[in-house]
Each structure stands twice: as structure tokens, then as C-alpha cells.
Design a protein that fits this description.
The protein has helices spanning 11-44, 52-78, 112-119, 127-133, 145-153, 173-183, 202-219, 236-245; strands at residues 84-91, 100-104, 160-164, 189-193, 227-230, 252-258, 265-276. The chain is α/β, with parallel strands linked by helices and 280 residues long. The longest helix has 34 residues, at 11-44.
Length: 280
């Protein structure tokens, strides 16, 4: 695995942001001090009498520094992306140990009835491997191979699978459950999150994913590191939402990397983060 490198921003933008931050601290402090002195002298008369022009100079400088503080705040807002950067670090499979897997149920594609009939003939002993590696026959190119490959990659540690169905795939849930029940160990719990969800509606998908993720974390004893969302379903909006909901959380998202027509594949895990970047 190549060494991970964070994306970098231009140093000029980072330097400008540091200057704006320092300017905000100084100008805010000076403005506060001068305006406090001028206000007390003018209205509360807590200080000894001073020449009026001195008070007005303090007030003017205070207002000026306050305006500069506002400008520095605006500059920091404009330059925030020079310090806040998002990235996804690849996590070694042997260090993850997924116990709860979340997948989206896509349309089966091909000839569903023929494929379902073939898949339901698989046995529990070798069925999962046969389904995942099939490159010929009725299981060739079946879109449901991907969630089952994700399951197969984690079968040694997996305890719970949550399947998110949509209004288009709801009708295929029973077939998925029947196939899964035949080829998966009985100790793996299959949870169905079915609704009239539109998998192309980002806000709706994100809402369901956040709820499903929280439920999965509770189910594995609160350890976020043991929860994974697989994005290999081919549903682009779901994939984007899955990556976003794992930002700055210990839960990861995964993707199945496979060459077309070959029986081998690799499941890759990604830890997405967004945060500060040091000046380099």
C-alpha cells in the first residue's frame, strides 16, 4: 500500500490566513480596550476628567480597530479552505474487522428470475464463495455479487448486515433474504431498512444512513471502528452520502475493486476526515 499523503494547499493562502488570524486577535483586543475606556469616560464618568479630544481619539481608534477585526474575520472565512481539507485514508483490511455492514440493495439486473433460481440452489458450505467468484453461467455479472462480496470479505468477524432498500428495490427484498439465509451463517443478523426511499434524493439518503449508522454502532457495543458502509452498489448518490456521513467518525466506507470478467476482487476500506492542516 503506498504511503498516505494529505492534499496540500498553497503556502501563500496559509500565510495570509495566519496573518488574518493574528490580526483578528490583536485588533479585537485593542478595540475592546479603547472602546471600554472611552465609554466609561464619556457616559459612566468613572475615570478622572480628560480633555474631550483625547476621549474622541480613543473612540475613533476603537471603532477603527473594530472595523479591522471584522475585516480579519471575513478574510479568515474566505481562507478557511486553506486550513480545512478533506481526505480519505485507506485502512488495511486486517486492521478493520467489520462487525456491522451497511449495504444498499440495487436492482438485480440481467435476468432476475433465472439468476434468483440459480442463487437459491447454492449451499451454505460453499455457496457464498461460488456466488462471489462466478464469472460464467447465470451468476455472471450479477449486480448483487457486490454486496455479497462485501459480506464474504468480512465473514470472519461479521455479526450484523443492514440492507437499505428503496421504492424500486423493495419488491426484491424477499429474494435477497432467502438467498442470504441459505449461504450465510445463522449467527449473522440481517436487518432490513426498507422504505419508499428515493436513492437519488441525497437528503433522504443521508437521513436514513445517519439513523442506520447510529443503530449499527449501538448494535456492536458502541465501537464505531467496527461499522462499515459499502458503496459498491453502483448508486452514485448513495456512495457520496455514505462517504459524507463517515466524515470525522471512526466508521469507514468500503469499495469492492474487481476487474471485469475475473473471479478475484479486493475490498478496500476508507477513513474519511476533514480537519486542520499544518503550515508546510
Amino acid at each position: 500500500m503506498p504511503p498516505f499523503q494529505r492534499p496540500r494547499h498553497k503556502r501563500s493562502a496559509q500565510v495570509a490566513g495566519l496573518i488574518a488570524g493574528l490580526g483578528l486577535v490583536l485588533t479585537a483586543a485593542w478595540a475592546s480596550d479603547l472602546l471600554e475606556q472611552a465609554g466609561k469616560a464619556l457616559w459612566l464618568e468613572m475615570f478622572p476628567p480628560s480633555p474631550s479630544w483625547v476621549l474622541w481619539i480613543k473612540l475613533g481608534w476603537g471603532v477603527g480597530f473594530l472595523g479591522m477585526a471584522v475585516l480579519c474575520t471575513f478574510a479568515l472565512y474566505k481562507l478557511r479552505t486553506a486550513f480545512l481539507v478533506s481526505w480519505a485514508r485507506m485502512v488495511p483490511a486486517e486492521k478493520h474487522g467489520c462487525r456491522a455492514l451497511i449495504v444498499a440493495l440495487s436492482l438485480p439486473g440481467g435476468e432476475p428470475e433465472k439468476t434468483f433460481a440459480a442463487a437459491k440452489q447454492l449451499d451454505q458450505g460453499t455457496g457464498l464463495d461460488e456466488l462471489c467468484k462466478a464469472v460464467n453461467g447465470p451468476l455472471k455479472g450479477w449486480s448483487w455479487q457486490q454486496p455479497f462480496r462485501a459480506i464474504s470479505s468480512n465473514k470472519a468477524t461479521l455479526k450484523r448486515i443492514t440492507v437499505i432498500a428503496s421504492r424500486e428495490t423493495y419488491q426484491h427484498l424477499n429474494n435477497f433474504k432467502e438467498i442470504a439465509a441459505r449461504i450465510l451463517p445463522p449467527e449473522i443478523e440481517i436487518v432490513i431498512s426498507a422504505s419508499l426511499l428515493d436513492l437519488n434524493d441525497y437528503n433522504a439518503v443521508q437521513t436514513v444512513l445517519l439513523r442506520t449508522l447510529d443503530e449499527a454502532i449501538v448494535a456492536v457495543g458502541g465501537d464505531e471502528r467496527k461499522v462499515c458502509i459499502d458503496i459498491t452498489s453502483g448508486i452514485k448518490v448513495f456512495s457520496v452520502a455514505a462517504a459524507v456521513v463517515t466524515l470525522n467518525r471512526r466508521a469507514v466506507f468500503s469499495y469492492i475493486v474487481a476487474e471485469f470478467g475475473k473471479a478475484t476482487w479486493e475490498m478496500r476500506y476508507y477513513d474519511a476526515s476533514i480537519g486542520g492542516e499544518a503550515l508546510t
